[in-house]
Automatic annotation (TrEMBL):
Organism (species): Streptomyces marianii
Chief location: membrane
Cofactor binding remark: Binds 1 zinc ion per subunit.
GO molecular function, one term: metalloendopeptidase activity
Location(s), subcellular: Cell membrane
UniProt keyword Zinc present: yes
Listed name of the protein: Protease HtpX homolog
Cofactor: Zn(2+)
Amino acid sequence: MPGTRSHSRYAADRGLTTRMVTTMFLIGLLYVVFVGVLLAVLRDSWPLVLLIAGSLFIAQFWFSDRIAAYSMGAREVTPEQAPELHGTVDRVCALADMPKPRVAIADSDVPNAFATGRSEKTALVCATTGLLRRLEPEELEGVIAHELSHVAHRDVAVMTVASFLGVLAGMMARVWLYSGLGRSSRDSNTAIAVLVIPLVSAAVYVISFLLTRLLSRYRELSADRAAALLTGRPSALASALTKVTGQMARIPTQDLRKAEPFNAFWFAPAFSSKESLSRLLSSHPTLEQRLDQLSRISQRLGRS
């Protein structure tokens, strides 16, 4: 069951654990229904359905983090190549009492960071050159603490598996439309299948998308909260958030559009337009929500 490691010093979040378990249950149920519909409609092609579904699941679970890191330009670096970043990761890992992940840098002016990995053993934390150039050491520490919280809470792995169904739905629809299965089948239900499969695929994609978005927004607030409590400096994380979000407006639109598909991984979302529909279905809570939470934590720490 997903949850915080027993010896990690990151604050446990029962709300996050409950949401992860609920999301995985609903996604699993949706997955069973989806594959069941495909098997019922494509009776003559059930071996192909199972082969594609199984292959995509394995590929998504084992390789999605590597694919995402590669797609975002992450390049692993040694302590000699990036002493400041490695030093920050070392400090946060010592504070959290957790194994050190692999450390990478992405050559991008978009100020951001992300973490991937199915577990702490396969984890990777990455910062962009734009982030390293803009943040002060205590701000960078807050961002790294935020990202490593995702690893400690294991919500990175949950998001990877949860997002699989939407990918599968899209792939199965494309396989059906372009492989000629419908045209070659002599089954009397072929005409129904031509209508049912795209509709079911679309419904599954929308439902899984909304479920993962709801979880994603909460996990970002949880990571902010855990990072602020771990470092004891919520103001530094708030400063980093404000600086990163403010700098997004100065980044060329072309660069932002390249980063947008990976918003669920980023420390702060990249939007190519202020009126973007992505803001309505964002993977992150608003800046105001995040700053308000950090302000409350700062007041609470001040009183204690």
